[in-house]
Amino acid sequence: MATSSILPLRLPSCARQGTTVRAAAAAAAAAVATTTAQSLEESYGRKGLKFVADPAGGASTAVLSVRNGSSLLLRLGDGLVTSYRPKVYWKDDGCREVLHTVADPSGDPAKAKGGVGLVLNDVSSSGGAQSLIDGSAWAIKDVDSDSYDAVQVELGCTKGKLDISYVVTLYPLSMATAVIVRNTGTKPVELTSRIYSTAPSKFTTIDQYSGLGFRLVRMGFEDMYLSSPGGMYDKFGSDYFLCTGPASMLVPVVVNPGEEWKAAQVIEHDNL
């Protein structure tokens, strides 16, 4: 249902260079994204929240930050959290990027690896699971901030008879993503995704290199998805991620007409 990629092994040393044609197309897209980011900044910008064009792909991105220095990058086009940099040490600035993304060599943002993303599949029909997110146009519905210890951005989109809200919140020692699905149609909708059966309500991931530990807490989801690099590291290379997240699959979530379903995941730590 929602997936996240935490504590990647390491980033590649360099990215491939694109062709002149790709560079020109990327420059044009970046110019449009910059204009969009400026417009968003004028409408929604405030202390702890600003909007920029992502230098890597030019996509409009929200930059969330709180008083202790923790920060988060949210790509607005598809709701992907591309970076999470919490404060984990008292010394210096004390922040460390523990969640990030790796761009695809083709430049296609949809093929980026890592980050925290949302997966919603409709299994109501006999044709198999169909994504409710792919191709959807997300728009900012609301923003909120207390200027010091919490910043929040709410995105929304409509897919058929479903209204979907996706809320991303940054706190000093945690980040949270929540989804709200409202069924405005006349038929029930069954939602499902990946699976880790008999899942705990929360678990801790530890980075052996730094010794930092982070908990992932699920709310509203019944299962958990977990994929470890293990022996597949040689097959997928140095940018293969540890993937984990809450899910519902053994028993699909049923959203009846006129009802709404809410769920969330939280990444938190107490390394300080």
Automatic annotation (TrEMBL):
<dbReference type="GO" id="GO:0005975">
    <property type="term" value="P:carbohydrate metabolic process"/>
</dbReference>
<protein>
    <submittedName>
        <fullName>Uncharacterized protein</fullName>
    </submittedName>
</protein>
<dbReference type="InterPro" id="IPR014718">
    <property type="entry name" value="GH-type_carb-bd"/>
</dbReference>
<dbReference type="GO" id="GO:0047938">
    <property type="term" value="F:glucose-6-phosphate 1-epimerase activity"/>
</dbReference>
<dbReference type="InterPro" id="IPR011013">
    <property type="entry name" value="Gal_mutarotase_sf_dom"/>
</dbReference>
<dbReference type="GO" id="GO:0005737">
    <property type="term" value="C:cytoplasm"/>
</dbReference>
<dbReference type="GO" id="GO:0030246">
    <property type="term" value="F:carbohydrate binding"/>
</dbReference>
